Fold each of these.
Amino acid sequence: MADTATFDHVIIGAGTAGCLLANRLSANGARSVLLVEAGGKDGYHWIHVPVGYLYCIDNPRTDWRFRTEADPGLNGRSLIYPRGKVLGGSSSINGMIYMRGQARDYAGWAAAVGDDAWTWDACLPDFVRHEDHQRLDGGATTDELRRFAASHGHGGELRIEKQRLHWPLLDSFVEAAVQAGIPRTEDFNGGDNEGVGYFEVTQRKGRRWSSARAFLRPAMGRRNLELRTGAHATTLSLGRDDATGGLRCNGVQLLCNGTRTTVRATQGVILAAGAIGTPQLLQLSGIGPPELLRGHGLEVRLAAPGVGANLQDHLQLRAIYKLEGARTLNTRAATWWGKAGIGLEYLARRSGPMSMAPSQLGLFTRSGPEQAHPNLEFHVQPLSLDAFGQPLHRFDAFTASVCNLNPTSRGTVSIASADPFAPPRIAPGYLATEEDRHVAAQSLRLARRIVAQPAMARYRPEEWRPGAAAQTDEELARLAGDIATTIFHPVGTAKMGRDDDPTAVLDSRLRVRGVAGLRVADASAMPTITSGNTNAPVLMIAEKAARWIDEEAQARA
Ligand SMILES: Cc1cc2nc3c(=O)[nH]c(=O)nc-3n(C[C@H](O)[C@H](O)[C@H](O)COP(=O)(O)OP(=O)(O)OC[C@H]3O[C@@H](n4cnc5c(N)ncnc54)[C@H](O)[C@@H]3O)c2cc1C
């Protein structure tokens, strides 16, 4: 394709959403599409080996390396805040867990935005469309598989597999959960994810299946799709719309290998820069809270107080239990022959710890009887460490990380400077509400209750963090602040909402209010965080955006 500076569509960010959008929009060969990505290509080998997650986080080859502000809820600690900066975006460095969320999440979205396009039933086809579920490889040959096939897809681009490993310790944890009254589940993706079981992951034969692998690679041969990596979008180009006289987004300015260019988009720009990058770019372009913009000497093109507000994230409380007589990764990977065995197992069978998603076992349940739906998610790992980036403990232990799926605390993302290369201020505001602190205390007590069941007794578990001495709500909530960290799900910073919601940046069809030719299709569009991991919901959002763009183009033709 000729290197022209004018395209029909420009997509900013080749992450989870951006790669899917590039695939869908360029499927029509009559349209020209440009996909721009600030990061580089995804050739780094650790991206593709699942355990390489540990080496991609906080690595400048793959991660923006953001830091949060010191957070009062975390007793003044600042966290590393990983976001993928590479083809595939965060899907190239994430934990690969495939989780749609709960049907009630989408009922909440539909109500919040006033549009039934977001109910669970209306979203289901947009999940199914790209799924390639391993369980359906042999066809829907039994009644159980036929029921499964009614709401899960096969033959799409996104491969979803069972994990290729098995840990007796985790099996004991499943038993213990059942003894504590939590049912087993084989499927976390049926709309109500209550239960305990091994997670399913976006992998193919033990290799990561990122959004770039799934959606971008198959489309790269198309002559109407151009990809620019190392291309940092610095400002949106805003002009006047001929028809209405209002603002219109005509394109974007890029800094690519030291060269400034402006690319034009005749049909529209789609922002898919993620929950941090999207509000940052909007603010840098003069769309955001007026005081913030003026404070950095920027002209206010559109007063939009919701840009960068409403930050929601899942905070994981990492409860750690020391064990006796258990096999965990801590001691299995401590010796050179242990490491060699792990490496050989992966080379021979693509299985074992190197194929391991960071969390293997999942559990969804309620923090108390007053909860109508599961509001907690556990990620259970046969390993422990003080913090990401630190070595594994030298004693056997496991981590029962638990997060509140529906936090009421809210944070912000705001530019710290008019310089597009300066990282924004990220203030998550964790554990800011009494309700969230109460749920934190309840969830640590629940971890204790499960670990105290007979199925775990043979390991003589001893609570290492937060420590058995903490008993009251107040003590537990304070210690939660010490052991908590992000589970990497920031969303909501350019949310959709009703016409009468002054903080709604987008309308219910993902169009930026007050700016023609500009859509947001990524994690920032969510009005509230889903009750689970966020990659699959972002893909679903991107499917809808692509379809609506198509429909609008057809209506214009
Ligand atoms: C470490 C980690 C673990 C996670 N684990 C899981 C998990 O196991 N399961 C799950 O479901 N979810 C998980 N998530 C969350 C999930 O991956 C994200 O919700 C999802 O990837 C967000 O998609 P997105 O398209 O909104 O943003 P991203 O995938 O982050 O994509 C944004 C893209 O835009 C690019 N970009 C940003 N700014 C600019 C700019 N100015 N110019 C050009 N390009 C720009 C970025 O480099 C990036 O490639 C995890 C995330 C992380 C970081």
Note: Residues 372 and 444 are 19 Å apart (CA to CA).
Amino acid sequence: MKRKRSADSESVAGSRTERGGELALLARIRARAAAAGSSPSVRLGIGDDCALLRVKPGEEIAVTTDFSIAGRHFELAWHPPEAIGHRVLARGLSDLAAMGARPLAALLSLGVPAKLAECSNSRGAKFGEPRQQCWIDRFYDGLLALAGKFHTPLAGGDLAESPIAAADIVLLGAVPRGKALLRLGARPGDAIYVTGSLGGAASGLEIMKGLAGAEKMPGAVGLRIPRKLEAALARHLYPQPRVRQGLWLSKRGVATAAIDLSDGLSTDLQHLCDESRVAAEVNAVALPISAGATLTQALHGGEDYELLFTARPGARVPRTIAGVPITRIGQVVKRPAKRPLVTLISPKGREALEAQGWQHFA
Ligand SMILES: [Mg+2]
């Protein structure tokens, strides 16, 4: 394996001195990425200047990039490293799902403080001596487990020593030409559906905050999650991107528009309305609220990574797609002259549903 300073499919940048630790780390990541599974989509993965991907005739390539930064998108002191790795990939996969694209490969640029890459015993460990798992290994454990589940090989990336932990992931997907699900395309009269349930990630985050406050000695390797809280935290720590549901929708041509719920229903539905030049009504009582979550969390909490899609009123939308429930939550209406774009209808009456989800620089 060669080393270069440039950002290519296998380089290690950011260090002036040759360090065995880095090369060992890179070799380990390469071996682990290979062990996590190959795919006919990746003709050449980690090891050369570029990865080579293969698509089928008549396919278009969907590309998305997502930046995750310590202190912004995750907390080193709270989140188990496996969950951070999982979430980094889940965000990208969810964007592919929203387009109805088949994952081809992921590319990850990872910057970490040196202490997170220190694995005592990682080199020269005597036979039979357990290697102490370091943060970076556990990060890849989480990322590669999800990659394996969705047949998304890690085909390259970059690794650098950095004052803060940050992960930038690129996801590449393929979709038959003209079949991608777009935000544009919803028409008045369409019904609005969501996959799964909403608010679980936000309610999990609240539990995490409580745990972090109760923890006496916060470390830099994540909180130990009590067994009895694992289920309540699952939606926050290990969200499941709806790749199979997105693929189903694009194959069947059922959806007129789609978006993934990363920033929260109130925000993402506005994005869809903006792109489609329509407005929407959401029926509060119809919302599939996650166990333990509140209506507010279901409406505004982000990071559920469910899909929201619209379909013509007569379209045959099944109750479940690939094992995940599908719920009709409202309808698309004509765009009014003035806001609101999204109206919440509840037993109390009608009210404007303002975007209160996550916004940077807000
Ligand atoms: Mg998205």
Note: The two ends are 44 Å apart (CA to CA).
